[in-house]
């Protein structure tokens, strides 16, 4: 078994070992993973954070000993800045995105350069969920995305909840099975609303906002009206409400 860490700003995880394959999720800087398979220039990894599996380029994986994998994997502080940076001794800077684990990495050799990374960015706090969420308004929708520069509905919710200390699964249908069920007339800001497709399967999730609004990713991260029937975008209903769950 091999252990690794992502030391690149953002790495696509693909369904198959090919550039043309579907992106199923992403790795953020500082996230640890298991290497479970390899094929030519690709490795199949499992994200420690949520158990999600996908293929990444072998050159994008930095291998770690197990003890460092365990140490870095327990990091519970995350960057709350839209973009911050790792600075190299030669003056080059690498961006770190919102939600990246702020691990302290001693003398890692990275692209032939040695550097010591000590986080200097702000930490997310339990009381600033709304502020964190507002930072992501307008971010484009991207299937499998987990960053301000492309994010999907469940990735948005997972990222926000992770930053306030609540661990939830990667996909909407998995998230919909956790937490406690809340009657629709008792839902509050901070609850998660889940929506079903024509086949009755959970296909969308959003964060219940104040004043009967929903914060979610659809085309872009946005705030729309939330009714018992579902999400209303000002012209039509776009998602059918299934149920609401509470995680706090």
List the helices and strands and how they pair.
Elements: E1 2-5, E2 10-14, E3 23-28, E4 32-39, E5 42-47, E6 53-57, E7 62-64, H1 66-73, E8 83-87, E9 93-97, E10 105-110, E11 113-117, H2 129-135, E12 146-147, E13 150-151, H3 153-163, H4 172-175, E14 180-182, E15 192-196, E16 202-209, E17 213-218, E18 220-226, E19 230-232, E20 237-246
Antiparallel strand pairs: 1-4, 1-7, 2-3, 4-5, 5-6, 8-9, 10-11, 12-13, 14-20, 15-16, 15-20, 16-17, 17-18, 18-19, 19-20
What does this structure look like?
By secondary structure, the chain is mainly beta. The protein folds into two domains: 2-117, SH3 Domains (SH3 type barrels, Roll); 126-246, endopeptidase fold (from Nostoc punctiforme) (Alpha-Beta Complex). It has helices spanning 66-73, 129-135, 153-163, 172-175; strands spanning 2-5, 10-14, 23-28, 32-39, 42-47, 53-57, 62-64, 83-87, 93-97, 105-110, 113-117, 146-147, 150-151, 180-182, 192-196, 202-209, 213-218, 220-226, 230-232, 237-246. The strands form six sheets. It has a six-stranded antiparallel barrel. Strands 6-5-4-1-7 form a five-stranded antiparallel β-sheet. Strands 2-3 form a two-stranded antiparallel ribbon. Strand 15 and strand 16 (202-209) form a beta hairpin. The radius of gyration is 19 Å and the shape is globular. The mean pLDDT is 88.
In terms of structural class, how would the helical and strand content be classed?
A: mainly beta
Order of helices and strands, N to C? Answer: EEEEEEEHEEEEHEEHHEEEEEEE
Helix content: 10-25%
Terminal CA distance reads: 36 Å
The name of the CATH topology of the largest domain is endopeptidase fold (from Nostoc punctiforme)
Instruction: Say what oligomer this is.
Output: single chain
Mean pLDDT: 88
Q: How many domains make up the 3D coordinates?
A: 2
Q: Ranges with pLDDT <50 over ≥5 residues?
A: none
């Amino acid at each position: 078994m091999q252990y690794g860490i992502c030391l690149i700003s953002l790495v696509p995880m693909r369904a198959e070992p090919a550039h043309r394959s579907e992106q199923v999720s992403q790795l953020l800087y500082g996230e640890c993973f298991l290497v479970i398979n390899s094929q030519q220039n690709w490795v199949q990894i499992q994200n420690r954070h949520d158990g999600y599996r996908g293929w990444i380029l072998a050159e994008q994986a930095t291998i770690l000993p197990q003890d460092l994998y365990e140490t870095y994997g327990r990091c519970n502080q995350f960057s709350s800045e839209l973009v911050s940076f790792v600075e190299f001794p030669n003056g080059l800077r690498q961006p770190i995105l919102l939600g990246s684990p702020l691990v302290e990495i001693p003398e890692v050799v990275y692209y032939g350069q040695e550097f010591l990374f000590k986080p200097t960015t702000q930490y997310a706090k339990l009381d600033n969920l709304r502020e964190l969420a507002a930072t992501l308004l307008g971010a484009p929708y991207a299937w499998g995305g987990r960053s301000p520069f492309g994010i999907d509905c469940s990735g948005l919710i997972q990222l926000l909840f992770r930053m306030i200390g609540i661990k939830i699964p990667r996909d909407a249908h998995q998230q919909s099975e956790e937490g406690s069920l809340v009657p629709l007339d008792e839902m509050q800001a901070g609850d998660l609303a889940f929506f079903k497709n024509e086949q009755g399967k959970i296909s969308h999730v959003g964060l219940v906002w104040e004043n009967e609004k929903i914060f979610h990713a659809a085309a872009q991260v946005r705030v729309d009206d939330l009714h018992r029937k579902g999400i209303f975008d000002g012209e039509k209903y776009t998602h059918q409400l299934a149920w609401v769950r509470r995680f706090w």
